[in-house]
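Bench log. Compound arrived from synthesis this morning; before running ITC I wanted a structural hypothesis for how 4'-deoxy-4'-aminopyridoxal-5'-phosphate sits in the protein. Inputs:
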Amino acid sequence: MSVFWNSRTRNLDPYVPGEQPRDRRFIKLNTNENPYPPSPLVIETIREAAGEELRRYPDPECTELRELIARKYGVKEEQVFVGNGSDEVLAFSFGAFFEPLSGAACPGSSAAVSRPVLFPDITYSFYHIYARLWGIPCHTVALDDTFSVRAGDYRVPSGGLSLPNPNAPTGRAVSLAELRSIIEYQYREGGGVVIVDEAYRDFGLVQAGESAVSLIDEYPNLLTVHTFSKSFSLAGLRVGFAIGSGELLEGLRRIRDSFNSYTVDRLALAGAAAAIADSAYYEGINRRVMATRDRVSLALTSLGFDLIPSLTNFILVRVPGKSGAEAFKALRERGILARHFNQDRIQDFLRVSIGTDEEMDVFLTECGGLIRE
Ligand code: PMP
């Protein structure tokens, strides 16, 4: 605490990102990065963009990238908003759509005023942090005993909701029909915006035809959020985007332009555009990630580990006979970094990102060692 901090800063409970070690080489399975490099076309395009033009500001509307995204996702360019990582897009969304406690009800605002925003008890921890930053009341809804979202729990009056699909760190997805029932309810009841965070969609959800992007034209209260950090292997570039109705996107622009109009730099715009253009490369690496995930899941099950079937590039596992903290420490000593969340219901689990086949073979060998200890 500092006497120079205002009450907002004092009240924050900031996110603690997964470790990015610099002192020692680990098999790094702790931040859900893609184990394969970005497409060579992306690297080449960024190199070419690193020239004289950098003296100029980037296009604040990210027009070219939005056109490419729109074409790939089958939506209109004016339904796409691009930001500095999906974390920024999510932070702007909370600020733009969810009502803060102290917010005076403006004429014409929805019935959502001062009703809490809903999200699962086990979910992406940044949602709580954004709610706190913006002073938004929120209410967590318990996942069921299998760590699944029960759609009925979200068909209740709310100030909006935020749901990753598939959920993180559980890896489980809600069906499109169930999602639709939630969005439809919230739309009909004036419950505010439904954010569906599809950070991990390309590891099974899209292939199953279950992405909520297909509902965009029907529901003006739906915002889907996406990232280049996972399936596009560009966590280091910081590009994310949202797809939604014109009125939602106008809200996002109002927040962005009250903060920083140029959130996405020229190199990031060029690299992300090249990634969109090289779909074949990305389909190839993500197919490998999914195959490795399924192989590792089977192997861990036969070792007697408890795990949740995952539609993402990570798995949530419980090491038999060890607490989560013990398993985390033992793996770290063996040169493997996983993620441990010291949180109710999942404190005995580790979230393990899917690495290359070679990395996961080492991981499996070390897991075998752990249970024989
Ligand atoms: N949503 C979810 C569910 C995530 O797990 C992450 C990554 N930690 C993000 C959003 C943010 O991703 P980025 O800011 O790298 O786009």
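What the model suggests: The domain at 40-278 is CATH 3.40.640.10 (Aspartate Aminotransferase; domain 2). The chain has two domains: 7-37+280-372, 40-278.
ITC booked for Thursday regardless.
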